[in-house]
Amino acid sequence: MLNPYLERRLFSKPVQSVLVEFDPKEFAAVINQITQLQLPIMDTIPTFGFAATTPISPEMIRKVNALPGVRIVHANLTQTIFQLPTSGEEWFPTSESRNMLEAEEAIKQGFTGEAVKVGVVDTGLDATHPQLQGAEWYSTISWPAREVLDENGHGSHVSSTAAGKLHHTPQGVTVEGVSRSPLLSVKCLGRGIGTGFTSEVINAMTVCYEKGARVINMSLGSEECQGGCEVCPECRMIATLAGRGIIVVVAAGNSGPQEDSIGCPGCSPDALTVAAVDKNGEVAPFSSRGGDKFPLKPDVAAPGVDIYSGTSRGSVIDVQELAAGVGFAAISGTSMATPHVAGLCALLKQKDPQITTPQIKQMMATKGHAKDTITGWGIPRWSYFA
Predict the structure, then answer these.
(1) Residues 273-289, buried b or exposed e (16+ Cβ, 10 A)?
(2) Annotated active-site positions, please?
(3) What is the pTM of this model?
(4) Which CATH class is domain 80-385?
(5) pLDDT tens, residue by residue, 68-102
(6) Is there a shared CATH topology between the 4-76 domain and the 80-385 domain?
């Protein structure tokens, strides 16, 4: 079938890249059929049955849709990071922000997350950064081919917040990630401004799965869910991973304070969707909200205002800082809130390797405040699960 979003889009954008979804068992047969149509393939994802083409005509899109074994043909859309400039008024270092989730209490009890790999699907990371040394890194960027450098800095900042090493910065500020988990960075957003294709994001999620990540952080998305969560490729992928016990933590988006402004794939019912609050626990004005369309989102909230953490040296984010070039920056967004929760989930996965996203939501429903469409059940704290 054609994704309904793609079908509508054909009238306004007749030539476009598509993401073909099919039964993974039929991978060789489907790829062979696409090749026989003489269509250029941009990327393939054998594990979960996806292939992306370069831009093709509506006629060819319909031919692909008619191939045996094809489930859905999606638009291969642009995804972006969810980050805003800092206010510049105050820094909130991760050594302090992590305590809003009671991360230090978990570590005192012996739960550091060291046995739980955290995957970060983002703009990459600076592997030489003192907070990020030892991290694994890969790239699914199709152009420039498999580029790994984090030229934006967003991915390094997110990774440092989730599981960056303890470090004392040149400005005399202490920073430390929520957990001490091994990090797996997969770059799928790039081109300087932090953008990528749906296929690159799906491929990055696949790499996280194949390399053993038990928690995946997605501080990214788009404003519209492609065809609804039942057919949206990112939402379908999250459902698949959640079914295999992987916790996928997703940013709500930065389109607040409007109602029903949750981004995709934050709208996924299988994701743990994160809103942003400031150091006082007050919701950030930019944090996306739920509403009539998304009555069950977001799920939780975490610090996401002026978060001071490591970033890629010489990156777009780094050079915008007052102390440019030192590899540390304060930035805001639900992108910054999300890795706080991903780090906490790694601590919870060490305590109970079988814990799932629905179980975390159930505990928050019991221990958090009454769920609303602004901060969900509120900030998840270690003591809720201890």
Answers:
(1) bbbbbbeeeebbebbbb
(2) 122, 154, 335
(3) 0.96
(4) alpha beta
(5) 999 999 999 989 998 776 555 689 999 999 999 99
(6) no
